[in-house]
Amino acid sequence: MSPIIDYQHKTVVITGAATGVGAALIKRLRSAGVARIVGLDIKPAAVDDYIAVDLSDRDAVEKALGRLPDSIDVLFNNAGVAATLPLAVVMGVNVLAPRKLIAGLQDRMAPGSAVVNTASTAGGGFMERLAPILELLDIEDWMEALTWVEAHPELTNNPYGFSKECAQVLTLQLARPLGRRGIRINSVCPGLIDTPLITDFEKSQGASILDWMTSQSGGRKATPDEVADAIAFLGSPAASYINGTNLLVDNGFSAAIVTNQIDYSALPPVDALMNSSA
User: Fold this and answer.
1) Does 11-276 carry CATH code 1.10.10.10?
2) Angle between helices 224-235 and 20-31 (to 10 degrees)
């Protein structure tokens, strides 16, 4: 019997491949028989072909597109940054670069290919801002989109959360047009993950908030391997009829919020629970 998650003969592209979930995903894909991994990152990654690129730089992403293979089976838009960086960087890496890569690579992806975005539970409130998010995503030009974001500061009190709301909506928005081409697109929406990036979230959101979230998520953060397994599944033929899904990977944290089973008594005195999601 063939393995459920099989990447034999497949060529994949991974952003944010050097550390954390990206590095764990590489190991998972190797064990699944992947033929070729192309990694995009600022730091060198353990891949077959490494392309150094600053994903917050429109021109750098454009140049990277010219160096990517002519045929790609799966695009993993995995790179992400926290709100410790400027707004233009957060939106560039978390939203605009993934969108540009999808647009630039879809003609190189045959029917049966897939895109997997790494979003976040922090984007779970997108319905409250759906209309402006769709307005933003309708702006194709990178710099015009950044100008629009800067002109709407009311949306970016939590820059990271807003960027991940955009990532979730982007996944939903592209499911139908990509689906007509035979390409699936989904996202994973992790809660807290035990990676080096957690220190950036501690700085931007506060360690006490993250400790509280951990206590409400079974007492531990997700491991990079656990998130990578979900990503690998969505990119594989095992998920062949899953399209336009934002998959929660948070050990029931979001479900507990919806069903009022969260212990808010231990919540630190901060007035932004949704800002705390990472």
Assistant:
1) no
2) 50
